[in-house]
Amino acid sequence: MAAGSTYPIVAQHELEEPARQGRLKLSKRRDRSEIPKIKPHEVLVWRVGGRYIADPRQLRESDDIVVRASSVSVVSVRPDTEVQVSFRIDSKDASEFTVKVTFICSVTDPLVVVQNGQVSASEALMAHLRHYHDLFEIGLKYTTTEINEVRAEMAANVRAYMARRPLKILGMEIDPSVTVQVETPSVMANLEDIKRGHMIELRKQRGEAILDAERQEHLLDKADKVTQRVGDDPAAALAIGYVDGGISSHDLAERLQQREAEFEQRRQAEELARQTREWTVADRDAQWTRDDRREEVTWTRHEIEEKRKEERDWRGRQLEADVELLKVLGANGHLDNYYADIDGLMRKIRGDAAETAVTTGDHAELTDGDKRQPESPDAKDGNVN
Fold first, then answer.
1. Cα–Cα separations (whole angstroms), residue 79 to 82, 163, 175, 244, 314
2. Which residues 6+ apart lie within 8 Å of 18 measured at CB?
3. How far apart are CA 311 and CA 370, in angstroms?
4. R_g of the chain, CA atoms, integer Å
5. Quick one: CA torsion of 137, 139, 143, 145, rounded to 10 degrees?
6. Quick one: which of 96, 146, 255, 309 could link to 142 by a disulfide (CB 3.0–4.6 Å)?
7. Number of domains in the chain
């Protein structure tokens, strides 16, 4: 039974004195509506004066007990009835844990239960738990995320307390074994709801992904079969689409025309690209040829200048050698009797190719000169300047 519901006394009714009935007004009889209807696991308890009488709904409206009763109670006698009590305890992080303790109860004597006014067993059980003050401070040691630790400690303490101090209710029997539950706080419950929603969404997305993958696999398989049939011929693929009803005849004609136009554009673009490449190669070759010629002319000019420089240097060095040679010859007196031009003499000294001809001519001139040249006085004396 849920907390707040009445157990073991389900209902109680106060009864008025029944009116007399019959012509002579000698007999009393209760109205049928004054007698409560009961379930199979319930009994009626009539109070007559100071006595209590159990009735499993066998007495009639005219029976003396029913007529003289001042009240009637409905008592549940179902064995092993679950009675639950709930309470809240504070947590370490200013939240709350909801604790629910379930007891197993049985009515052993409904008359004693009514006589003692035991309307709600849950209230008696809750009052018994409140005597254990430490039970309500367990949650202060834990945060809301440590709910499993709270459950374990709360269950252990409640069971130990009920075993050490069992509750006794007259006319009833309380099983010492109890069930303890600690509900998730509302904050965590919201988080769990969000998490559960996310999990549902993930499962939904996973299912959609699987369906999409299967659709893609089907399309790929179909495309593979079409490819095997049509090969690389787009026109054949369009024809298959037309046969399958995917495109109309008008669309087929337009696509074929568009395909032809695109093919012609690609051909023209490729031809233009080919010509451009050829022109580029020709321009590059011509440029390389011009550069090679320019470098060849520059190299040839450089070679000529180097040769001329070497000739000038050689002539300079030769002239210096000739001058030095003349100085040596003059110092030794070899030039005292000669008056020929220096160039001829140099050629003679160097042994040029024209040495023989030049030497013959020069010798004749020198011979004639020697004949015309008067002899100096020093020559007669044998002195040479």
1. 9, 21, 11, 74, 143
2. 28, 29, 30, 31, 34, 67
3. 38
4. 69
5. 180
6. 146
7. 2
Cβ contacts of residue 113 below 8 Å, gap of 6+?
Answer: 8, 9, 75, 107, 170, 171, 172
Please report whether residue 121 resides in a domain. Answer: yes
Structure tokens at 264: 């012609």
Answer with the one of 183, 213, 233 that is the final residue of a domain.
183
- Judged by DSSP in three states, 295 sits in helix
3-state helix, strand, coil in the chain (%, to 5): 60, 15, 25
- Pick from 144, 163, 183: which residue ends a domain? 183
Expressed as residue numbers, the domain containing 351 is: 337-371
Rounded CA gap, 18 and 34, in Å? 10
Q: Report the DSSP beta bridge partners of residue 9.
A: 75
Q: Where do we find the tokens 């010859």?
A: 329
Residue 71 lies in a domain: yes
Q: What is the pLDDT along the chain (385 residues), one digit of tens a residue?
A: 433 468 999 999 999 988 777 666 667 888 888 899 999 999 999 999 999 999 998 888 889 999 999 999 999 999 999 999 999 999 998 888 999 999 999 999 999 999 999 899 999 999 999 999 999 999 999 998 899 999 999 999 999 999 999 999 999 999 988 999 998 776 555 555 556 666 787 787 888 888 878 777 776 676 566 555 545 555 555 555 555 555 666 675 677 678 778 888 888 888 888 888 888 888 887 888 887 788 888 888 888 888 888 888 888 888 788 777 777 777 777 666 655 556 665 665 565 544 444 444 444 444 444 444 444 444 344 443 3
Distance CA 288, CA 292 (A): 6
Cα–Cα nearest to 172, from 79, 56, 41, 86: 79
Tell me whether residue 89 is in a domain.
Answer: yes
pTM: 0.48
In the numeric block, the tokens 């309380």 are attached to 174
**Orientation of helix 249-331 relative to helix 234-244, angle to 10°:** 160
Residue 377 lies in a domain: no
Residue type, 236: A
